[in-house]
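dude i think i finally got it to work??
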Amino acid sequence: MRSLILMLVTLFLVSYIPTKQTEHPATEKLDNLVLRKEVFPKIDETRLLYRKMNLELVLQYDAFEQAMQGYRTLQPRQDHILTVIDFTLPSTEKRMVVLDMKDEKVLYHTIVSHGRNSGDKYARSFSNRHGSYQSSLGFYETEGTYQGGNGYSLVLNGLEKGINDQAKARAVVIHGADYCSESFIKSTGRLGRSYGCPALPRELNKPIINTIKNGTLLYIYADNPEYMAATQIVRTTDQSLLAQHDTDLDSLGTLN
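look at this
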């Protein structure tokens, strides 16, 4: 009997011996969470799309990123097409890119003219004023087509007040021009210039217009501080420009 009682006491004591446990389970879970975040960083969707569409050789990222801000904010009626013109490039280079956003590919990449008072080889000055003969920056919605003095043309509706909203009244449209050609570049060292219209090569004018007409979005980019101070569509992570934007927004009515 004493042996049985001793055995039962021994078993009772053994059953209460604590097993080895993790001292700080909460800390361990937190460490694992941090590791998982490091393995799967936040994805920049715009940059991912930029790479997926192989745009590195046809469009600089800043122009694309700003165009995408407007594309997502303005939500164009016809959202399958986005057109970007990069006026930081000289007129001798292909500055217009037409993008198929549905199939994620480049449809057109071509030269395009700027206004004659915006600059010579480079477009450096921009205006919303009548008679300025300068290009206007910012976002436009394409409208219908017509046959005018420059042939088949596309109406542009400027969407940014004080920046390009006089485009239609100024007859700033997309049209073809003989001075927008590789032969003109070879003879003069630059493209010819318009009265403010983004003029295209004759052979590409009609197919491009028919692709982008009736409610698609066009963005004209120039890395221009005055535009960045005035626009309410594009935002930048540069804190100095954000401060300038807040300070100057009410006082800056037009660009030039």
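The domain at 45-248 is CATH 2.40.440.10 (L,D-transpeptidase catalytic domain-like).
im so relieved honestly
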